UniProtKB/TrEMBL annotation:
It comes from Haloechinothrix alba. The lineage of its organism: Bacteria, Bacillati, Actinomycetota, Actinomycetes, Pseudonocardiales. This is Argininosuccinate synthase. NCBIfam families: argG, PRK00509.1. It is an enzyme of class 6 (ligase). SUPFAM superfamilies: Adenine nucleotide alpha hydrolases-like, Argininosuccinate synthetase, C-terminal domain. Residues 174-391 form the Arginosuccinate synthase C-terminal domain. One of its GO terms (cellular component) is cytoplasm. Its EC number is 6.3.4.5.
Amino acid sequence: MTKRVVLAYSGGLDTSVAIGWIAEETGAEVIAVAADVGQGGEDLETIRKRALDCGAAEAVVADVRQEFTEQYCLPAVQANALYMDRYPLVSALSRPLIVKHLVDAAKQHGASTVAHGCTGKGNDQVRFEVGIGALAPDLEVIAPVRDFAWTREKAIAYAEQRDLPIDVTKSSPFSVDQNVFGRAVETGFLEDLWNAPTKDVYSYTSDPSLNAGKPDEVVISFERGVPVAIDGTPVTVLEAIEQLNKRAGEHGVGRLDMVEDRLVGIKSREVYEAPGAIALITAHQELEAVTVERDLARFKRQVEQRWGELVYDGLWFSPLKYALDDFIASTQQHVTGDIRMVLHGGSATVNGRRSAQSLYDFNLATYDEGDSFDQSQAKGFVHLWGLPSKIAARRDQA
């Protein structure tokens, strides 16, 4: 039986070169697998043909945008997931989906090995390999760039020697990873922490000052934690993200410039653009503030942080992540209603909330006529609430 290797294929230089290199080094047929997670650029058929022209025995391409947004991005929105309280897990969310399709392809084509193009300094090697190990423990993994010091110069030389159908002259000063949920930019002059991002770093967002005189007010509707309408028009999760990418992006919403803690132990400067993600998470957080009971909301915030760390750290398929999924899903029962926000000057600012599931009681909250809160009960409550501290203070001051 012919040995086969399934390769996570992007269509770029490194993975195109990897097709022939893996075949030569291992004697195996290479099955290239590419997924459209909303990254834009070339169409899937172009990528499929390039893989075949570079020597792949077969090329599998799939439009997984709907699956990505509904099964990966939506849980992140419901978890209000922001790694280090800022990063909406743009790249981290796409990796387990790609892993799933790699494993499916390996099973379908009888492959014993999966290959990826990650380096040894980043998080993605962990996300790919830990994910593969969780779904298919018997599969082997190879990483040419990491394991064999495959540099860009070597890749270009290899492509030129074999006349591979790929442009080896195109070079970006940055390393970019993007999908429909956002865009991540690193390396180049950004590695000097003092250098400010220039306008060519950005693609999903406009300069926040460009539309300063034209704020955009938008109403986002949720049902049980799922965005279902924009300004009253029904949308899928994919459509909600795409529309908010455009509208929030026009006002510079979702720009992040941060130094983050990578899983491998180093700090890395990253510039992110995630206009739709930030707008949706902001709206969802505000609706939860209205509809989720206090103690449940407090505990959920702890769960959200841990959930985000697990996903960032490549543990999407771990037992703890699955258990936290169930908890977060249970908290969404009453998260139904509308959030109105203004997109302007780089910010998504909520200025209106309404929900039939609201826990906000006007008559309890008001200080005007109609106040139904019995303030006479507060004195005894305050006394009992502070009693343990008072007793301890007497002891310590004796």
